[in-house]
Each structure stands twice: as structure tokens, then as C-alpha cells.
UniProtKB/TrEMBL annotation:
InterPro entries, alphabetized: SAM-dependent_MTases_sf (IPR029063)
Entry keyword Ribosomal protein: no
Keyword match Transport: no
Protein's organism: Pseudovibrio japonicus
Keywords: Methyltransferase, Transferase
GO MF entry, a single one: methyltransferase activity
Coiled coil segments of this chain: none
The protein, known as: Methyltransferase
Single GO BP term: methylation
């Protein structure tokens, strides 16, 4: 299995299905938060998610090679949600995004509360996750996401199907969950 993740990470950016998913997720992000506006140049954004860390370790290396001037790649273990995000750089985010991550978390609700504490007032948490379907029961239901966002003390919550992607001749629905502090 580790070799497969390493191979996937090496060519992740070139995978057509990955790029399609990323394009659709970004379009749905823009429909809710205009991160391309000039005011967002000074905002703090965290892209959360790493699973076991094996794939992320490879992804961070690819990200470093891109040498993006406004991106600081870091890999930090937040754990099971019981630790507080106390480091200065792990607080006051204007936006935290989690793409295809939360449905894999063993304690999604607890960790979401921890991430909520790292968001600045009027900041956003936006997640994309797989919706269960007739073909595949894996994923998060809109009701579960809505409850978790509300329990994490977001003032405004919105959950809906954002898009679908085709994988192995199957249309897999993806939900977007949005919480605003």
C-alpha cells in the first residue's frame, strides 16, 4: 500500500479525476467565498487534512517544489481533537478548508470543534465530502454534517450537494458543508 500512495502523490496534480474534483470544489468555494478578491491576499487560510500522513508527506514535498510565495507548507498533528491549537500560526484563520477528509476522521465532531476554535470571527470552515449513495454507503450525510457544524458553534451553517464526479463510470455526489463564525 505505501508504494501506491507514493505513486499517487508523485502524479497527483496530473490525474484528470483529481483535477476535475479540485476544479469543481474550487468553483463551489468561489460561489460562497470570493477568495480571488484583493482583500483575500492578506487572509490566513488553512488546508486541513492528512489521514495517516503518508500521502501528505509526499504532497508537501510536491508543494514545496512549486515555491509559491504566499504558501507555508507545514505538517502538524492535531490528533484526536483533544489538543488545543495554541501556536500563533495555528489560530485566527479566515478560512479552513477540508477536502475529502472529514468522512475519514475517527472523531469528526470533536476535531471539527477544535478547528472551529482556530477560526477568526467571521471566518469560514468549508468541507467537501462524499455523500453516501445507492452505489456506495461511505461518506457523510447532510444531517450529520449540519449537526456537527452547529455543535461546533458556527453562527451560520449551510450544507448541500455541491457537485458530483465520475469515478470508474459512477457518479459520486459530493457535499459542501459551510460554517461561519
Amino acid at each position: 500500500m505505501p508504494e501506491n500512495w507514493s505513486k499517487a502523490a508523485a502524479n497527483w496534480d496530473q490525474d484528470e479525476q483529481v483535477r476535475s474534483y479540485a476544479d469543481k470544489a474550487f468553483a463551489s468555494l468561489l460561489s460562497h467565498v470570493n477568495v480571488c478578491s484583493p482583500q483575500w491576499k492578506s487572509k490566513r487560510v488553512l488546508d486541513f487534512g492528512c489521514g495517516t500522513g503518508l500521502l501528505t508527506e509526499k504532497m508537501i514535498e510536491v508543494l514545496k517544489r512549486k515555491q509559491l510565495s504566499n504558501v507555508i507548507p507545514n505538517c502538524v498533528e492535531i490528533g484526536n481533537g483533544t489538543q488545543q491549537l495554541t501556536a500563533d500560526w495555528l489560530a485566527d484563520f479566515d478560512l479552513i478548508v477540508a477536502s475529502s477528509v472529514c468522512s475519514f476522521l475517527p472523531n469528526y465532531k470533536v476535531l471539527l470543534h477544535t478547528l472551529s476554535n482556530a477560526i477568526a470571527p467571521n471566518g469560514y470552515f468549508i468541507q467537501w465530502d462524499w455523500l453516501p449513495s445507492e452505489m456506495n454507503d461511505f461518506g457523510l450525510t447532510p444531517a450529520r454534517v449540519e449537526r456537527a457544524l452547529n455543535d461546533a458553534n458556527f453562527a451560520q451553517v449551510r450544507v448541500e450537494q455541491a457537485f458530483s464526479v465520475e469515478v470508474d463510470n459512477q457518479h459520486l455526489p459530493v457535499l459542501i458543508g459551510i460554517g461561519v463564525k
